[in-house]
Design a protein that fits this description.
By secondary structure, the protein is an all-alpha fold. It has a domain of about 150 residues: MetI-like fold (Orthogonal Bundle). Helices cover about 75% and strands about 0% of the residues. The protein has 13 helices and no strands. Helix 2 packs across helix 13 and helix 7 packs antiparallel against helix 10.
């Protein structure tokens, strides 16, 4: 089997493009060590005051915890709904399956402002009957995120089901397996990695969501992205640069751990 390797020109171009894309991220690092109260590159002494502010100011911790809570709830609910919807289309194959699939993807293709305004009026109306799933409440933000991220989970799970051989379900059905047995013992184990991928993807999308969050929150439910947006809009707090560096380091550590794990797992697979 012939393996194609990139030439020196392709490697050089790829390296230049990577440097061009990563330079803005590298520029954040020195700014995070500025001793001043505004965003600037330190000209003399470097300071950790903004990293200490992330720990000492409880607002950042509250925003972090709220973003994690909303992300977990939104990802679990969105993935469960998307999996149930995709399984229904795959198993029943209704006449209007394409129309239903397109309807499920509507929040993905609709302008974000339209979705945000729709969710705003919905949550304001729900606020008249409850105090949890309402405007400027964490439950309302979670509901809005579910609506926005569920289409991505639908795509991931549907693609996995499209590649699954239907004969395994027919064989289980012919042997007398009931519906829930077929779903939980036959179908879901074969697409579990796609379901986990949808769960992770929806959590990341919920974690970084800011457009719709600005419309459905005010002063009570302040997520971490909204807190960063407020810092950039109101007073340009350098603590945002410090938080950005922390997030960048976290992502790099995760990617390196994944690369090391794959390098160790590859020799075992080749045996």
């Amino acid at each position: 089997m012939i393996r194609l390797r990139p030439g020196p020109v392709a490697l050089t171009l790829a390296g230049l493009i990577a440097v061009f894309l990563l330079l803005p991220l590298v520029a954040v690092v020195p700014i995070s060590f500025t001793p001043t109260r505004f965003l600037s590159v330190p000209s003399g002494a470097w300071s950790l005051r903004h990293y200490r502010a992330l720990i000492e100011n409880p607002v950042w911790g509250q925003g972090l915890w709220l973003s994690i809570k909303i992300g977990l709830v939104a990802s679990v609910v969105a993935t469960a709904l998307a999996t149930a919807f995709s399984l229904g289309l795959w198993m029943l194959r209704p006449r209007f399956a394409n129309a239903l699939f397109g309807l499920a993807l509507l929040p993905m293709v609709a302008p974000p402002v339209v979705s945000a305004l729709t969710l705003y009026f919905l949550l304001v109306t729900l606020a008249q009957w409850n105090d949890i799933i309402a405007y400027d409440r964490w439950g309302g933000v979670a509901l809005a995120h579910v609506v926005m991220v569920a289409p991505y989970a639908v795509v991931v799970v549907s693609v996995a089901l499209a590649q699954l051989d239907r004969r395994i379900d027919l064989a289980a059905r012919a042997m007398g397996a009931r519906l829930f047995t077929r779903i939980f013992r036959v179908i879901l184990p074969n697409i579990r990695f796609s379901v986990l991928t949808a769960l992770f993807l929806t959590f990341v999308l919920s974690w970084e969501e800011i457009g719709v969050t600005l419309f459905v929150t005010s002063v009570q439910a302040i997520t971490l992205p909204r807190l960063m947006w407020m810092g950039l809009r109101d007073n340009i707090d350098p603590a945002i640069a410090a938080l950005s560096v922390v997030l960048i380091v976290l992502v790099v550590v995760i990617l390196l751990a994944r690369a090391i794990w794959e390098m160790r797992a590859q020799p075992e697979r080749s045996r």
